[in-house]
Design a protein that fits this description.
The complex is a heterodimer of chains A (258) and B (414). Chain A is an alpha/beta fold and 258 residues long. Helix content of chain A is 40%, strand content 22%. Chain A is globular, with a radius of gyration of 18 Å. The relative contact order of chain A is 0.20. Chain B is of the alpha/beta class. Chain B contains 17 helices and eight strands. Chain B has a four-stranded parallel beta sheet with strand order 2-1-3-4, sandwiched between helices. A four-stranded parallel beta sheet of chain B has the order 6-5-7-8, sandwiched between helices. In chain B, helix 1 runs antiparallel to helix 10. The longest helix of chain B is centred in the last third of the chain and has 24 residues. Classes of the chains: A alpha/beta (258), B alpha/beta (414). Chains A and B meet through helix 2 and strand 8 of A and helix 16, strand 8 and helix 17 of B.
Chain lengths: 258, 414
């Protein structure tokens, strides 16, 4: 029996198809989230690569910021629950999820048996989110996907003191003008995101195992600085960006089993 | 094509609490406007100032916090904040203050007009921003300010020294007002007013206490409307009667198995902080649509003052939520959670109110741990609509609900 999870975020749309709540059958990701063609494109890609159709899905659950606007699912659930479920699917002993998406950051605490017990989210500000990295990558004319690798070349990360994305933008520009090396700037930017979210994480209380999820989890420099700031090992899996969609597909499966 | 027939609003029973309380709240503004026309002195009063003073002296009262909340709820918060900001006030200042200062300049706001003051009566037991706000009002309007200093109490209990300090100021305020307006203090009148205030407070606390019943006989958002009477008119005779009617209705609801929360009550939460007035409907719907009833809030109970002596009254004013230490604040909330079978806590991180929001991280952590309930927070503002995101609110509320749901399932499984 197949279940489908759709995660419509602020910048990307992800789909994951599971068989019997255990096996990942297919996945897709498209740029463009809420209010774009992203969700439809991600679905089209999923049907193409799986060779299956909507009719063959026993249940479809949608999550993410676009969950309330999407028509065609059987139900919706918050991305908080989904990231907890998805993270636990990949790491069975997971207790803390640090999810950094396009426009928010969440720390999700899990009980020993895997239930979400609490969560903390960032305040109404883009600092410490994927959008911050996106803006900085644009200023530096770099591909956001390369930020982690470039930061790895840094010898001394630059200090980015402004938490406000707009002020940090001018700070980065002036540091560039002052001759600060690009890898040092990129490392400083990644460190800035990590330390800001680490403060949230400390407030929530860190219990190991800790993993990162969401698009920013792919950035190895952010993971490195996060581990450094929290003094814990940060688990990572290449599926990290799909945890929300995996969780939605798992939630669909659990509903069927009820 | 048939003409659309507009449904007439359902008439409100004049004997109902809703009618009585609505009338008192509306009359409070109108009465002050009438008083002004008759030459009776009008005071702008901070919400936790001892109302017994102006009521006993026969001074008409206006509560700028209440006015600002009304203006914000009717959609004019941003317009008024912009006026204040153009005058040089930072948008980091409390939005109630900005709206009030804007009103002092414009002297008009169709969303809630009030009588202009002859004096401002300030008490800082609710926050210290109040002092500068009222100083500026006094300066701008060229009127006197009477200040009652009730500082934050770092100790758990109110000391004798604090009672003495505040009592002396109480009488000093009375004497200043007597001299300013040629009024005479009347002990019998004072006793009558304190009786009215205590009667209204007892009935109000009894009504909010009905949240102990499961399901609750009321929607907690009702309290946010009804409390306007406790802020503006707790020293009036009619308030006691209206509050007793409210209590009676809630008890009848309980006996009949009905409620003003007109959907199935699946979850019960404590709401922390001042209401997000510009988005009252959005914040209410986000809860109600998920079967979440905000059964209790310290904010509503804060305006119930029950005492049996002068010293007790002073102690009550020294014990309002923002004037007490973390431990006492925490214990009050834990009691509310336990008494009212609360399953989760939702915190309004109110950009306007640094004092209240600042200690909420630790408060939420301690209450959540003590009561074993999940805690979620959202960003917003009591009156400035620019500090709230409905999508973010929705995700947090849904996340909170999903934890409460999982907790219920877990309890059912054990």
């Amino acid at each position: 029996m197949y279940t489908l999870g759709i995660d419509i975020g602020s910048t990307t749309s992800k789909c994951v198809m599971l068989q019997d709540g255990e096996t990942l059958v297919a996945k897709s990701l498209q740029l463009g989230g809420l209010g774009t063609d992203g969700p439809e494109d991600a679905l089209t890609q999923l049907w193409r690569c799986s060779g299956l159709s909507r009719e063959e899905m026993a249940r479809v659950i949608v999550t993410g910021y676009g969950r309330n606007k999407f028509e065609g699912a059987d139900g919706e659930v918050s991305e908080l629950t989904c990231h907890a479920l998805g993270g636990r699917f990949v790491f069975p002993d997971l207790r803390t999820v640090i999810d950094i998406g396009g426009q928010d950051a969440k720390i999700i605490s899990l009980t020993p048996d895997g239930r979400m017990s609490n969560f903390i989210m960032n305040d109404k500000c883009a600092a410490g989110t994927g959008r911050f990295l996106e803006v900085m990558a644009n200023i530096l004319r770099l591909d956001i996907d390369n930020l982690g690798a470039i930061a790895a070349q840094s010898e001394t990360p630059a200090a980015i003191s402004s938490t406000c994305t707009v002020f940090a933008e001018s700070e980065v520009i002036s540091q560039l003008a002052n001759g600060v090396k690009r890898p040092d700037l990129v490392a400083g930017i990644c460190q800035s995101v990590a330390t800001r979210v680490a403060s949230l994480a400390r407030r929530a209380g860190i219990v190991e195992r800790v993993c990162m999820s969401g698009g920013v989890a792919r950035n190895e420099a952010v993971r490195h600085y996060m581990a450094q700031a929290l003094d814990v090992e940060i688990s990572y899996d290449p599926l990290a960006q799909y945890f929300g969609a995996i969780g939605a597909a798992l939630y669909a499966w659990k509903q069927i089993k009820k | 094509m048939a003409e659309e027939v507009k449904k007439a609003p359902r008439p409100v029973d004049p004997n109902s609490a809703k009618y009585k309380l609505g009338k008192i709240a509306a009359d409070a503004f109108a009465d002050a406007i009438e008083a002004k026309k008759k030459g009776i002195p009008v005071a702008w009063v901070s919400s936790n100032f001892p109302v017994e003073i102006p009521e006993t002296l026969g001074i008409a009262t206006v509560y700028p916090e209440n006015q600002a909340a009304g203006i914000a709820a009717r959609g004019a918060g941003e317009r008024m904040c912009n006026v204040a900001e153009a005058e040089g006030y930072s948008n980091d200042i409390c939005a109630y203050a900005r709206i009030s200062l804007a009103y002092a300049k414009l002297k008009s706001c169709p969303e809630q007009d009030v009588a202009m003051p002859d004096v401002v009566l300030c008490c800082n037991n609710i926050c210290n921003c109040m002092i500068k706000w009222y100083e500026n009002l006094a300066q701008e309007l060229n009127i006197p300010m009477i200040m009652l200093d009730i500082p934050f109490n770092p100790d758990y209990d109110v000391s004798d020294a604090q009672v003495q300090y505040v009592s002396a100021q109480f009488w000093d305020a009375v004497h200043q007002l007597e001299q300013l307006f040629g009024l005479k203090w009347d002990d019998d009148k004072f006793e009558e007013v304190t009786g009215f205030s205590c009667r209204a407070s007892r009935a109000w606390l009894a009504a909010t206490g009905c949240a102990k019943y499961v399901p609750s006989p009321f929607n907690g958002f009702d309290l946010l409307n009804h409390m306007a009477v406790m802020v503006t008119a707790r020293g009036k005779e009619c308030s006691g009667d209206a509050m007793e009617t409210l209590y009676k209705e809630y008890m009848e609801n309980h006996k009949n198995g009905t409620s003003t929360f007109r959907t199935e009550e699946k979850y019960r939460i404590l709401f922390e902080g001042i209401a997000c007035w510009p988005y009252l409907r959005a914040t209410s719907t986000g809860l109600k649509s998920r079967g979440i009833n905000m059964v209790t809030t310290i904010y509503a109970d804060a305006f119930g003052y029950d005492y049996d002596s002068f010293e007790g009254m002073i102690k009550a004013y020294c014990s309002v939520p923002n004037a007490i230490n973390l431990e006492k604040s925490r214990d009050k909330r834990i009691k509310l959670c336990q008494d009212n079978h609360v399953e989760g806590m939702l915190i309004h991180t109110n950009r306007s109110c640094k004092l209240w929001s600042g200690f909420m991280y630790e408060m939420g952590r301690q209450v959540g741990k003590a009561c074993d309930i999940p805690v979620a927070s959202f960003d917003g503002d009591q009156a400035d609509p620019r500090n709230f995101s409905e999508a973010q609110y929705d995700t947090r509320v849904q996340g909170l609900m999903e934890i409460m749901e999982a907790n219920k399932e877990q309890k059912g499984a054990n």
